[in-house]
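pasting Capsule biosynthesis protein for the record, 69 residues
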Amino acid sequence: MAHKVTDLFTAHPASVDETYLQHLGFALRFSGWLILAGMAALLHALLPFLFEKTASNIINTLHHRIHKR
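structre below
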């Protein structure tokens, strides 16, 4: 049973040629950028003169990063 539990943590990272810790780091950085993009979009919604392209620039960068993997 222990073997199957570890597979839950390692199968997907291995499918993208990463260790668990490498995948954790990538996913944490990725989520941080998504949070920043969301905050920029929220501020832009309230104050349209701020962060006009910030959220879309972050999302485009993340999109290219994900597809380079």
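The helical segments are 2-15, 20-46, 54-68.
Residues 44 and 51 are 6 Å apart (CA to CA).
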